[in-house]
């Protein structure tokens, strides 16, 4: 069973029926068929299908892989931001950091605190860009 596989990998149930966490990583139901994978830096890393028994252990590995990649991306972007914003750094280096930060696949999320149709309603969790609607 999927919950047992999560526990075997060090996840703990933090909300009954159900939400599991491993450090800053969390997984919880979106719908009855889909799970939301969440990290400290990204509340919606990806949606993963609720696995059957055959894929259960593999799905735990997939969730952990997604969380590791997200943590790594966040860590690298933070370092690039520090280089970009460091006035004492080499201008070419700062420029390269800025170029790298501008490259983003965009993960669009809806900010429910912003009214529909208003700027900032849809934004990228990764680069903070606001989507034009
Ligand atoms: Zn983006």
Which structural category fits the helices and strands? alpha+beta
N/C terminus separation? 42 Å
Compute the number of structural domains. 2
Spans of at least 5 consecutive residues with low confidence = none
Strand tally is 7
Name the average pLDDT: 95
DSSP strand (E) fraction? 15-25%
The geometry reads as globular
List the helices and strands in order.
HEEEEEHHEE
Biggest sheet layout: 5 strands, antiparallel
- Could you tell me which ligands this complex binds, including any ions or cofactors? zinc ion
The strands making up the biggest β-sheet line up spatially as 1-2-3-4-5
The helix content, as a percent range, equals 25-40%
The radius of gyration computed from the alpha-carbon positions, rounded to a whole number of angstroms, is 18 Å
- What is the count of DSSP helices, taking H or I runs of 4+ residues? 3
What attributes does this structure have?
alpha+beta; two-stranded antiparallel sheet; binds zinc ion; 7 strands; 2 domains; five-stranded antiparallel sheet; 133 residues
Describe the structure.
The protein is of the alpha+beta class. The protein has two domains: 2-102, no CATH class; 106-133, no CATH class. 37% of the residues lie in helices and 21% in strands. It has three helices and seven strands; from the N terminus they run αβββββααββ. The radius of gyration is 18 Å and the shape is globular. The model has no long low-confidence stretch (mean pLDDT 95).
